[in-house]
Amino acid sequence: MDYGYKVSVVADACATMDLTMNGETIPAETVQKTFLAALDGVFADIITDRIP
Prior knowledge:
This protein has one helix and four strands, in the order βββαβ. It has about 50 residues and is α+β, with helices and mostly antiparallel strands. A two-stranded parallel sheet has the order 1-4. A two-stranded antiparallel sheet has the order 2-3. A hairpin with a 2-residue loop joins β2 (about 20) and β3. It is elongated.
């Protein structure tokens, strides 16, 4: 994106794991959705299995 390329991320093609912060576990699904939401529209187009 920084070099002018159009970036797409396929949401179902990436995964993560539960993360722990200050003794609290953040579920993998929440971690993934949060990262994808942060990228969406700013740094990349997020491709999901939903039909627009």
